[in-house]
Design brief:
It holds the Pfam family ABC_tran. The protein has a domain at 21-96 and 218-288: 3-Layer(aba) Sandwich (Rossmann fold), CATH 3.40.50.300. The termini are far apart. It is α/β, with parallel strands linked by helices. The protein contains 9 helices and 10 strands. Mean pLDDT is 89; it is low at 1-8. A 6-stranded mixed beta sheet has the order 6-7-8-3-9-10, with helices on both faces. A 4-stranded antiparallel beta sheet has the order 2-1-4-5, with helices on one face.
Length: 288
């Protein structure tokens, strides 16, 4: 059948939907530590695909391999078996702009917040070649705009010891995003904060993601945090870990703390909790 016969005259054709590109892919990736004959399996063969612009949270028992997956994705660790593809290339084969934030902000105490946040622009290509010329103009404006997004615009010239833990973590997120990374890796970034500050920073992180849309991989033990922030949640088994559940989180955005008390959100939390409890129980039985 010709195209003119397939579509009524005057009716516009509909272009096929374009699937989002894959930013991160683990293909049968496994990790073991130790010498031959005395190896310890840290991660079983794991498959994981994260689309560009997606926000994925990894949850599971302590020691299950969540941080191992993050280190594989960052290129800080090579898989014992399998492959890790980031940005369409095997990790390490091509420089990919990555931002990272951890539980400890690790700000340099002798630098102001402005200079701490600007630090990646001094190190990361292509920004580092222009650092001397732009650090007091364009790069400074970039830092101040990002600090304003998180409510720290009046603290650019303060030193880390003059800020609270929550403020330091806001600055830490700014530093992770200042060089416009394609991929943002977060390892328990709010774990050391009190509950109220954590909830406030969930909103900050959500706003930054909605505005910039990097691909995000979040490691967390907080199921409520995962449900608030992520568009997908992957649950891992006990060590040696593997992904035992991968579910979309369809709550509308922007999400609020009040929403976390709704029945559907509470049900999601309980389902995730039950999966992790079952995984721990299975591991205990196998180890008995």
């Amino acid at each position: 059948m010709s195209r003119s016969q397939a579509l009524p005259q005057g009716q516009p054709s509909i272009a096929p939907a374009v699937a989002p590109s894959i930013a991160v892919e683990l293909s049968q990736a496994a990790v073991s530590f130790g010498k031959p004959g005395k190896t310890v399996a840290a991660l079983q063969e794991t498959n994981l695909r994260i689309a560009a612009g997606e926000f994925v949270a990894l949850v599971g028992p302590s020691g299950c391999g969540k941080s191992t997956i993050l280190r594989l994705t960052a290129g800080l660790l090579n898989p014992t078996r399998g492959a890790v593809i980031v940005g369409g290339r095997e990790v390490g084969a091509k420089a990919l702009r990555i931002g990272m934030a951890f539980q400890n902000p690790t700000m340099l105490p002798w630098l102001t917040i402005e200079r701490n946040v600007m630090l990646p622009l001094k190190i990361v290509r292509p920004f580092r070649s222009d650092y001397r010329a732009k650090r007091k103009t364009e790069f400074r404006d970039r830092v101040h705009a990002l600090l304003a997004d998180v409510g720290l615009d009046k603290f650019a010239n303060h030193y880390p010891w003059q800020l609270s833990g929550g403020m330091l973590q806001r600055a830490n997120l700014c530093r992770a995003l200042i060089h416009e990374p394609s991929l943002l890796l977060l390892d328990e970034p709010f774990g050391a904060l009190d509950q109220f500050t954590r909830e406030e920073l969930w909103g900050t992180m959500q706003s930054l993601w909605l505005k910039r849309k990097p691909t995000v991989l979040l490691i967390t033990h907080d199921l409520k945090e995962a449900g608030f922030l992520a568009s997908r949640i992957c649950v891992m088994s006990a060590r040696p870990g593997r992904i035992i559940d991968d579910s979309a989180v369809d709550f509308p955005r922007p999400r609020t703390v009040d929403m976390t008390f709704d029945a559907d959100f509470v049900a999601l939390n309980q389902r995730l909790r039950d999966l992790i409890i079952d995984a721990r129980s299975d591991a205990a039985i196998q180890g008995a």
